[in-house]
Design brief:
3 helices; alpha+beta; about 170 residues
């Protein structure tokens, strides 16, 4: 049984601040610090979006996606970003992560289920401006070191990705 966490409560504010700090780490290129916010068993995925009639479901294919990552693969990506071999990020992207509309529940296990809307902008070199929007469904777990992201499912609004690549973290 999940319990709704009310807006303005200490728990709500703690999760909201965590989300804001995460966005700041990503936008400032502090990827090692961002990785430190992940639980060892993190599941970080983005299923593909499909245009379907309401009777046919949510419109996301969980059988196929843009990525399905774990801690090891995220760590590899972060390490690669620190080298000159991350060609899609040479020169690096300038991003801005906006997070809003936090709805928060707390499970009996103590984990938080957070649903947020996101907007991420990316500018890189002289390439066209990228603009990503959607919903994130997160599971956050309290540890001795603070909140850690145990699961993130990114649900894009776009059905067609018009960006040159998806080399940033959402």
């Amino acid at each position: 049984m999940n319990r709704h966490v009310p807006l303005g409560s200490a728990e709500y504010n703690q999760v909201l601040e965590w989300l804001y700090r995460e966005a700041t780490l990503l936008d400032s290129g502090q990827f090692e610090g961002w990785l430190g916010l992940m639980a060892p068993d993190i599941s970080y995925e983005m299923p593909t979006r499909q245009s379907v009639y309401p009777k046919d479901g949510e419109g996301y294919s969980h059988d196929f996606g843009f990525f399905a990552e774990n801690h090891a693969s995220l760590e590899t990506r972060v390490k690669r970003l620190g080298t000159e071999q991350a060609w899609a990020e040479q020169p690096g992207s300038r991003t801005r992560h906006f997070v809003s509309n936090l709805l928060l529940d707390k499970c009996e296990s103590g984990e938080f289920h957070a649903a947020t809307c996101f907007m991420v902008t990316r500018i890189r070199s002289d390439l066209p401006y990228d603009f990503f929007t959607g919903e994130r469904r997160d599971v956050l777990r309290m540890t001795d070191d603070g909140l850690r992201l145990a699961k993130r499912t990114i649900l894009f609004d776009q059905t067609v990705l018009k960006s040159y690549n998806l080399s940033i973290f959402l």
